[in-house]
Amino acid sequence: MNHRIYHHFLQRKQAQHKSFAVLIDPDKVDAAAINELVHLGTKAKVDYFFVGGSLVISSHLDDCIKQIKALCDIPVVLFPGSPSQVSRYADALLYLSLISGRNPELLIGQHVVSAPFVKKSGLDIMPTGYMVIDGGAPTTVSYISNASPIPADKADIAMCTAMAGEMLGMKLIYMDAGSGAQTPIREEMIEKVARHIEVPLIVGGGITAPEKAYRNCQAGADVIVVGNAIEKDPGLIMEISAAIHAVKAHA
Asked: How far from each other are the two terminal CA atoms of the chain, in whole angstroms?
C-alpha cells in the first residue's frame, strides 16, 4: 500500500517544519469557491487540503476532489464524517477512530463496515486517533458522535488519551474543538499532549487568527487545520499560512 502522504507528514515533523491544512467542506463550496481556495492555497504554499465534514449531504465529493486535483499538486486528504465519505480520487484518508468518546460505532463499528471499500480504494490509509475537545459550544461533531468531548481544562485526560491512542497503533493524533467552536484548544493542553507522543499531532477547531495558529505550533502542534474561518474570509489563508510557516525549528 502506498504511504507517500503519511511519510510526508513524518518527514515534516522530523524536520520540525509546521504544516497548514485548509479544510474544505463539500456542502459549503461551489466550483467558483473551490477555484478561489485552491488559487489562494497555492499562492500561500498550503501543505494539504483536507476534504470532508460531519455530514456531507451533497453528492459532489468526487467532483470537489477532482477539481482540486486538476488545479494544483497539493495533497488532498479525506477527513470523513462517515464511511460513505471515501473517494478514490483523493491521495490519503484519515481513518478516524474517536478515541476521546465511548461510542463503539465510532471507535470500530463503522470501520468494520467500511473496511473492504477502504482497502480497495488505493488511498494512503492513515489510522488517526481523533480527540474531540470542548470548544465552549455544541458542535456538529459532538452531536453526530453522540459522545461527550474532553473538558477544555483537563489536559491530563487529553494527554493520557493521546498516549493510549499512539500505543494502540494510531499513526496520527488529531485534537479538534469542532467546527464553529467558540474557544480553541488551549496551548497548555497541546503542549502536554505533544510532549508525550511521538506521532504527528494535528490541531483544529476555532482557530480564527494567525496569532493563534502560530502559538499552537509553538506549543507542539505539527499540523494546523482551519476551515470555518476561511469559509468566512478566504483571505486569511495567506496570513495563517505565513504565521505557521514562520515557526522556527528548535535548535
From this structure: 35
pTM, to two decimals: 0.96
- Cell numbers linked to 65: 476532489
Residue 241 is placed in which grid cell? 499560512
| Per-residue pLDDT at 1 exceeds 90 | no
Dihedral sign computed on CA atoms, order 64, 140, 128, 110: negative
What's the pLDDT tens digit per position in 86-140? 999 999 999 999 999 999 999 999 999 999 999 999 999 999 999 999 999 877 7
Domain ranges of the chain: 4-245
What's the CA angle centered on 56, arms 52 and 58, to 5 degrees?
Answer: 125
Distance CA 190, CA 29 (A): 30
Alpha carbon distance 241, 33 (integer Å) = 19
E-assigned strands of the chain?
Answer: 19-24, 48-51, 76-78, 92-98, 124-132, 172-176, 201-204, 223-226
The β-bridge partners of 110 are none
Q: Cell for 3? A: 504511504
Dist. CA 42–CA 22, nearest whole Å: 11
Dist CA 129 CA 202 (whole Å): 10
CATH topology of domain 4-245: TIM Barrel (3.20.20)
**DSSP codes, 37-48:** HHHHHHHTT-SE
